[in-house]
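Lab notebook page, bench 4
Experiment: in silico fold of construct C2
Operator: M.H.
Input chain length: 139 residues
Purpose: comparison with the prior construct
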Amino acid sequence: MKNFQQVLYWGARIVAATLMLQTLYFKFSASEESVYIFTAIGMEPWGRIAVGIFELIASILLLVPSMVWLGSALAIGLMVGALGMHATVLGIEVMGDRGQLFIYAVVVALCSAYALGRSLSSIPELIKSKLPLFLQKRK
């Protein structure tokens, strides 16, 4: 069972990182869909580039064992923002994508939440002491 949990933990991290890395090409190349999305939410071009940079950082941190907690937290924050924009401004479907970007955001958020839950014990004590009690999981 422990091996399965380890595979699931790594799988969740890899899926979240891969999905975020996959979208970077579109953000950094100013694809029509990315420009449309960030124009609609009033954050083009600076927001598109900043979100891309943060997604790159989160993806890298998700793959570094001692930093999974930070990469997961950053990814969750980014996906909460993306899902919020889908819920309030963009809608589920964007430019005929059949909700693919929305689904990606949900999958990344779920995988990152799982990874964060599994990595709580690696959060440094100084930071952990400032967190709400339910996040202060002990070793």
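Observations: The two ends are 19 Å apart (CA to CA). The chain has one domain: 2-135.
Next step: discuss at group meeting.
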